[in-house]
Amino acid sequence: GILHDQRIIHLTIQQYARTLRHYEPLEQYLVATPVTENQVTLSFRQIDMILRIALPLSAFTTRQWWGSDKSHVQSKAWLGAGFEVDRKGVNFAEGWVRFRRRTRKI
Fold it and tell me: What three-state secondary structure class fits 98?
C-alpha cells in the first residue's frame, strides 16, 4: 500500500544521503587545494585513504564512474569542489585519476 511505498522512498533517500556522505571527504580535500593548483592527481589508494572506505570495483574499471556528470553521487564531490575529470584524466593501468579545476559550468 501507500505506507509501504512511502517507506521504500524514505529508505532510498536515506541510502542516497549516506552514499553522498561517503564522498564528502574527497570534496573537502579538493576544496582545500590551493587555488594556484589547477589539477590534482591522486592514486586510487590515496582516494581510498581520503574516503576511509574502498572505492567500488567500477571505479577501477569503468571510465563513466569518473565522469563529471551531476547525476552520479560520487561526481558531486569533485564538481562541488570546482573540479572535473576529463577523458584522459583516468589511468586504470597505473591506478590514478586527475582532477582539473573547472573553467566552465557543468
Answer: strand
Q: What does the alpha-carbon distance between residue 104 and residue 106 come to, in Å, rounded to a whole number?
A: 6
Q: What is the sign of the dihedral through the CA atoms of 21, 17, 11 and 57?
A: negative
Exposure class string for 44-58: b at 16+ Cβ within 10 A, else e: bebbeebbeeebeee
CA dist 52 to 5, 8, 68, 98, Å? 33, 28, 22, 19
Please calculate the CA angle 56-28-105 and round it to the nearest 5 degrees.
90
Q: For 31-86, how does the pLDDT look when each residue is reduced to its tens digit (9 = 90+)?
A: 999 999 999 999 999 999 999 989 999 999 999 999 988 888 899 999 999 999 98
- Evaluate whether 29 touches 8 at the Cβ level (below 8 Å): no
